[in-house]
Structure formats: C-alpha cells, structure tokens
C-alpha cells in the first residue's frame, strides 16, 4: 500500500529567512502521525505545504499519490488551521453548511455530517448561536468540526486541542483513534502536549525547520535514553545546542 | 454550486451587518441631500453702501436685488464696520467701487451688477439726448441655452457626477473591506484549503457585493431624480446602466486594492490616493484647461468616463449611442481589474 503522504527534500523560506530545510517525511496510510517541536520550528509551515497552501521553494510533496498542490486532492483533506478562521457573523451551523457546500455535499449528506461533526465536538446545542458569541474553546471545536465535515481520508489538524477542556479533549482523542482504527483515516496532528504525542503511532521531532528524529514514541525514548517524550523534547534541544556549539 | 454557497454567505454576512448596510444605502442619500440644499440655498442680497450717487442709479441698483444703503460719508472702514459687501462713491464725475472681497465670487457678482446698471444708465442718458440711436441700443439680448435653461444651477450640472461618484466611493470601500476582512481573519487562507478555484472566489465576490451595489445604485438614482428633482434629460435606464458599470469597476478595484492592504486602516489609506483624485477628473473642473499631463492622467480614471457619460445622459439628454465610447472604456476597466484580481489571489494559491 502506498504511503498517504511523501515529502521529499522540501525547502522553504519566507523572504531570506529559511524556515524548512531539506525535510523528508513519509506517512503511511492509516497512521496517526504527530509533529512536535518548539514554537517557530516550522510545523505549521510544513502542514500548510502538505495541504498546498504554501509553495515549496524546492522539493516535492505527494498526497494520496498526487503531486501537490492539487485541487482534487483537497476534497480528501480535512484541515484545521492553528488560528480559528470562522465567520463570526454567521451561526455555527451556517459555518458548517458553508464549508459543506464548498465540498459539494448534497443536502442529505450535509445534514448527517453536520449532525455527526457537531455532536463529536459537543456543539449540537449551540449550533444556532452566532460564532461571535462563542467562547474560545467553542470556536476551536467548531474549527475541528469543519475539518471533519466532508468525511475526508486525510485529517491535518494543527494543534486541535488547544483551549479544549480535558474531558472533551479525551473524547476527541478517542474519536480520532476510532477514525484511524475503524475507518482507516490518516491523521496528522501537531501538538505541544506530550501525552497527546504519546498516543500517536509515529512522532516526528521538528526543530529549526528540520526533522531531527522520527519514530514511534518508544523508539524516540530509546534513542535519547529517556523515559518520557517530555525528556525527549528537552534532550533534543540540548543536543542541538551542543551540535551548534561544535560547529 | 461553490459560487452560490459563497454568494449566499457574503449576502448573509452583509445582511447581519446593519451598520455597513446603513452606510451603503443611507449615507449616499444623506450626502446627496445635503449637497442639494447647500447648492440650492437662496443667495443673500449683497449690501452696497453709496455716497453721492444720483437717485436714478440707486433705483436701478435696487431693481437688481442689491440692498442699497446711502451714507453721507464713508470709507473702507465703513465697509467693515457696517458689514457691507461694497461701497460705491461718486467722485468728481467718476465712480469708485470698493469691494470687500472676502468672498471672491460674491464680489465679482456685485461688481458685474454695478457695472451693468451703470452702463445701462449711461445708455439711457444717451438715448434721451439723441433718440435716433435708441432704436438699436434698446434691443435686448435674448439668451438661448443649448443645455439646461436660465434656472439651471451649478448643482444640476454637478449632480450627475455626484450620483456616480457616491456609487463608486461606497461600493469601493465596502467591497474592499469585505475581502480584506476575509484575509485578515484567516478565512481566505482557510478557503484556499478547500477545492475552490480562484476565479470562483472572484466571481462570488463580484456577484455577492454586486447585488448590494445594484440595489444601492437604483436607490441613489431614483432618490436623486424623484426626490431631489435633479434634472434628467435622458433615460433613467441609461443612468442606471452607467452607474452599474461604474459600480462593477469600483467593486473590482476595491477587491483588487484590498490585496495590497494588510489592515482596514491601510485600506482607508487608499481613499485619498485612489478615490478622491477621481472626483477632480470627473468633469466638475473643465478638463480643457488642465495641463497636458493631467489630461493624460484623467484618461486612466474610471470616473472621467463615468462623469462624462452621466453628464451626457442626465444633463444633455443624450442616448447610449452617443456615449458608447465611455461605456466601452468602463467595461474595459472592469475586465482588467477582474483579471488582475484572479492573478492577485495567486499569492495564496497557484491553482
Ligand atoms: N507568512 C510568514 N511570513 C514570514 N515568516 C513566517 C510566516 N509564517 C511563518 N513564518 C516563520 O516561519 C517559522 C516557522 O513558523 P511556523 O508557524 O511553521 O512554526 P510552528 O512550528 O507552527 O510554531 P508554533 O508551535 O508556535 O505554532 C517562524 O520562524 C515564523 O516566524
Ligand atoms: Mg504552528
């Protein structure tokens, strides 16, 4: 089975500032893949490039066997941006409906998908409210619901659980695992929370625009000879600084 | 279907934003009404002080709506103290007119009236002395008007241009800020992660805001013609057509320029740079008198063509055939701006 995502030798800079440096990444079908790394490391830039919203300076990205950017593939990608991009004047339901129609769902599909997605993020009761009146966490949840609206094969979630309470966070993670296990969806999640990373099949550590290490959470711990991903994160930082010192 | 979803959303957003709606539909009417009263206000009769002027001439002056006040003695201080517009003194056969000249147009008008009355008096005296010459001199000059009539005021000439300009201004601002908000809130980015095409976004924006622009244009035109009683020599449909075309240009230009603005504040900065200069070239000031390079600049201003077309239809009563050049120019502007819009969105996604 072909991998869902293949990133090859991708370089990206904003103006003169290099942001990604020779990134290679392969994500298998049905994997839950975590991207961790310090703020400003380039995680968001990387996932945006996978979606085709940013152009690589060099290198190629293939998603579901198609070279990105590719419009048809976008139908199969559910993307949740790091910042909530919602229409505040509209109600939650109108936001969901709008995105559902962009993905060309018919009326029946729209109804069932809106019911499913809003139920998953526990927003069913607030669907008729204007988004302007939502709390921060509610907006985040609506964002997540929109990413799921067209039932895509591939989910790309940029820090999906920031601002969401532990109880709901748990149920969202259980649902992500169910989507992966039962429906074979490929999921990419960026996160700063190590116990979320712990639940991923594979984790890649991004630092200064390069992937320092990747593997299962256990492989990473073995690699750095530590007992938790938190320590992996810290140790990777120290190692990198030492390397820089040597250079 | 994506386009219609986007149009529906834009419409819904605008309908929920009561203030923006108010700005779009009520503000142009308010300003137009204000201008109407400003330009149609009754002129105050000028006050003229006179010293040693004969009875005949004073009567003549009073007939032309000049308020004449006689003084024994006066100087330019009197003009200021008594708040006169001018002072006419007879001085050993000559007459001296002192003008206050705080308002140049008022001063010029007064000067002209005084000259006319004085000249008429001299003529009368001549006729009395030699009636033979009278036959020719008493003939009045009949004035005929190619456009308008003797009651035409500046506002009648100005209003066609104003109607067009307000349509341009408000459509520009609202559509520009509309797409800008989509950029700054990140929803445009979000849209680009769905399978929508760039031209679909541009089409939807043009249509969504276009609907409101059409309503606004029709309201403004109907209000101007029916309520404010602005002269309309030509057909109202031609007027609406020109304004719609102009609205389309403003719409496309507003959306286009919003891609060069990082915030609402920066969008507002386009008003003095792009919108206000348009009014100078719209036909309020005669183009013939402008420097050559300014005339060239006028040719790249949409308002130049719209102003010309509107004046032709509303004031001169011309038909579409006679303004086809202007119509084509506006259409070309619209096409260019729309195409540039599709290119400008490349910044977000190349597809
Ligand atoms: N549009 C942009 N223009 C210029 N620089 C940018 C832009 N977007 C991101 N960057 C830079 O690219 C680098 C990586 O940013 P990115 O958003 O990918 O980080 P991140 O790993 O997602 O961080 P965080 O965990 O804080 O979300 C940062 O140094 C940032 O300043
Ligand atoms: Mg990020």
Please give a quick description of this structure:
The complex is a heterodimer of chains A (247) and B (351). Chain A has 247 residues and is α/β, with parallel strands linked by helices.
Can you describe this structure?
The complex is a heterodimer of chains A (247) and B (351). Chain A is of the alpha/beta class and 247 residues long. Chain A has 2 domains: 5-76 and 152-246, P-loop containing nucleotide triphosphate hydrolases (Rossmann fold, 3-Layer(aba) Sandwich), CATH 3.40.50.300; 87-151, no CATH class. Chain A has helices at 43-51, 71-74, 92-102, 107-120, 136-148, 166-183, 194-197, 217-224, 229-246; strands spanning 5-14, 17-27, 32-36, 58-63, 66-67, 77-80, 154-158, 186-190, 202-207, 210-215. In chain A, the strands form 2 sheets. In chain A, strands 6-7-8-3-9-10 form a 6-stranded mixed beta sheet, with helices on both faces. A 4-stranded antiparallel beta sheet of chain A has the order 2-1-4-5, covered by helices on one side. The model of chain A has no long low-confidence stretch (mean pLDDT 89). By secondary structure, chain B is an alpha/beta fold. Chain B contains 16 helices and 4 strands. In chain B, strand 3 (86-91) and strand 4 (94-99) form a beta hairpin. Chain B starts with a helix and ends in a 7-residue tail after the last helix. The A-B interface holds A 51-53, 55, 69-72, 74-75, 77, 79, 81, 83-90, 94, 98-99, 101-104, 130 and B 1-2, 4-6, 8-9, 12-13, 16-17, 185-187, 189-197, 348-351. Bound molecules: adenosine-5'-triphosphate and magnesium ion. Magnesium ion (MG) binds at residues 43-44, 82, 158 of chain A.
